[in-house]
Fold:
Amino acid sequence: MSQTLKATLVDDVKSAMRARESVRLNTLRLLQAAIKTREIEVQRELDDAEILAIIEKQVKQRRESITAFEKAGRTESAAQEQNEIDVLQHYLPEQASEQAVHAAIEAAISQAIEKGITGPAIMGQVMASVRQNLAGRADMAEISKTVKEKLSSK
Structure:
């Protein structure tokens, strides 16, 4: 059996310490702290899917920070955030291709229409379906924009 994502993170923290990789080490320590905080909240150990959700959230937060730093002209801070994203993305599943994303969106829209869902409810139904199929493999903010565009053109 392969080891859990949490065990992999512990091993990677140790190897980052040995290799004196400060960006990787600090990023992984922040991730471990976020995982520990969530475990305390739910009072149990998290499974890999829950840890992936935390990693996705951290990547999203860093993307938002990059946008803010770039607007403020703080390119060094934006570059630091990008380095942290690079570390975190190592733990996420391989990103879905653009074709796979569009296919998942089209399939979800078709399913919702077949079920007779209309109006604003269709957006929630489509996003729930796409999120289930592409969890951790695509940027949900971008998918949301694409879904809105496709639904407004139907």
